[in-house]
Amino acid sequence: SSNRLLRSFSLNIGNHFDLTSSIFVAPRKGIYSFSFHVVKVYNRQTIQVSLMQNGYPVISAFAGDQDVTREAASNGVLLLMEREDKVHLKLERGNLMGGWKYSTFSGFLVFPL
Asked: Where does the C1q domain lie (predicted)?
């Protein structure tokens, strides 16, 4: 899907992030940390990127300054996830600089339950 993060990862221990679908699937129940960073294009529009858990938005990041050539937005969260829960990024509105090329998405298990 064009609204998902489609890029290669420098680190994917356990292969729980599917590079084809851009979805992370929790291997076990626990507390997970996720963060992301995106860059918008200069086109006088606002972007909104949401972190989705099982299809529902959990957190979002916004960028909309019209006087800046490039503007970045970041956010992070700790989530309680069950085994097989899914997390991905979704571009809700606007356009990103280079698509997802200059964006990052990170996640890891903080504490197993």
From this structure: 1-113
- If 0-12 CB within 10 Å is exposed, 13-18 middle and 19+ buried, where does residue 33 land? middle
**For 14-23, what is each residue's pLDDT tens digit?**
888 888 888 9
The tally of CA atoms less than 13 A away on the side-chain side of residue 48 is: 8
- Please compute, for residue 28, the number of CA atoms within 13 A of its CA located in the half-sphere on the CB side: 8
42-67 pLDDT tens trace: 766 788 999 999 999 999 999 876 66
Largest CA distance in the chain: 46
What secondary structure letter does DSSP report for 80?
Answer: E
Report the DSSP pairing between strands 23-25 and 86-93.
antiparallel
* CA 43 – CA 63 distance, rounded (Å): 12
Cβ-in-10-Å burial (0-12, 13-18, 19+) of 107 comes to: buried
pTM of the model: 0.84
